[in-house]
Amino acid sequence: MSGSQLSGVDQILQNVDLASIQDERARKCIGLLLNLVESLTADLRKAQAEILYLRQQLRRGGKGGGGQADPSKEASRPTPRSSEKQRAESPEASKRGKGSKLERIRIDREQVLKLDRATLPSDAEFKGYEDVVVQDLCIRTDNVRFRKEKYYAASSGKTYLAPLPQGYAGEFGPNLKSLCLLFAHLCNMTEPKIADLLENVGILISDGQISKLLTSTLQEQFQQEKEAIVEAGLNSSRWQHIDDTGTRVDGENRHCQILCNPLYTAYFTTARKDRLTILDVLRQGRERIFRINEEALGLLGQFGVSQRVQQGVRQLPFHQDWSESELNRRLADQIADLGGVAHERIVEAAAIAAYHAEAGHIRLLLCDDAKQFKLVADELALCWIHDGRHYQTLDPCVAQHGQWLDQFQKRYWNYYKELRTYRQDPTPQQATQLRDQFDELFSTVTRYEALDQRIAKTKANKVYLLMVLDHPEIPLHNNTAELGARTRVRKRVVSYGPRSEQGAKAWDTMETLLGTAKKLGVNFFHYIRDRVSGAKKMMSLAELINQRARTFDLSPSWGGK
User: Fold this and answer.
1) Using CA atoms, how far apart are residues 317 and 337, in angstroms rounded to an integer?
2) What is the pTM of this model?
3) What is the pLDDT of residues 333-378, one digit of tens each?
4) What angle (nearest 5°) sits at the alpha carbon of residue 317, between those of residues 311 and 322?
5) Do the strands 252-261 and 150-153 form a parallel or antiparallel pair, or are they unpaired?
6) Which helix H or strand E contains 359, and what residues bound it?
7) Is 218 exposed, middle or buried (0-12, 13-18, 19+ CB in 10 A)?
């Protein structure tokens, strides 16, 4: 088809108006054709993006994308129209809490600047001072030669040396070690760049020495702090945010799980991202346990496991916690010819049932609609922003379809604002009204097929999207976890990935300390230096989480339990 023909078709699509067609059958037929055009256009865009991606790979000599997301999938998505304006808070609300920048600047020294009286008129009178605050930085070495007194006692045959000051061990001091951690995890600098910077200010240190500082020195202590943070964070509320993103370890694809709430953020690099992995994260890596009970049998029914297998599982003892090897042994003895898929479903169901039987397990997860997050907690809340993105990615070529999409999105985000208002002052009557409004809004039929299908999918998630009506303390979105994921993505873009399991653990540990310190308003450098120096004068992040959790009840709708 020539360019002029395409232009003509495009003009028709921009001007078509189904309401102006009087004949009902013709109107229906044209509506079907327009939806077919939308479908074929979407397929064409996807194919063009894949062709472009393959051409790029051929130009690179067939080299892969380094384990990152397939660019063809990314390119096939139209540029989304941001929903920030539709869901933004009022200007008055956004201004709250902002203070003067000058109030937050610490003054290190004062200097009085005097005028030469000889240059002033004879009648000039002193009227005080006018303050000007200038921020500056002094970067210099503090290399110390410690002369340790040395004694020898013939009576004992031993030599006695004066110890180094607290925090000093090896050839680098606590400030330098703390700065290396700061540069690597807060500033996302690579090890060679850290070495370049330090060399320019007079520090002689190699890439290998920096790598050792980042992955070995004091990591055991920081790992213990991370574990304490996760335990305190999980105990601070009965609901949690969770999300994941891609990561790599020594060139192999892995997954990074981000677990958080308003008081902390924790990172876990995992080999898989299934339900068992999510349970491992929530159980802080303790040995897996499994239990057969009525809940496990109900889950087997949901998973579509055959009646024969369900009957076999029913014969196993109930309400007993088993290790994975014990469960496998009992299944082998009880059920002959147990298939691999059925076995996986039984293991999943028994692990979920065992977790739910534990005291203090997480009652609700706020996340996107990835299947590995479902059924893990008692309840599930879905992110409205994530759901709204599906509408943002619709890119109709028919003008009337675009109008219908814009009109529906306006109603969508107005409803979102009503939910946000409800959280401030929830009442049962308002919750009932919002449920009715949800049914009305997501029963909309526009005759734009892709939009109608998306609306139906949102409606199917009603229970999860309206969980906020039962638990007003939970946010309407999963932004805090997604922002946590961005920390790993930025680190991954700069440093590609750690080269060892030890390095991966260091990434998880330091990003957990960094993310949690930010949420608690703790200066990351000061905290790291406090730990590296051995002073430990600052309250631990885990203790701060416990303190804040006692002050602010994050789970009032669960009775704080």
Assistant:
1) 20
2) 0.86
3) 998 888 889 999 999 999 999 999 999 899 999 999 999 999 999 9
4) 115
5) unpaired
6) none
7) middle
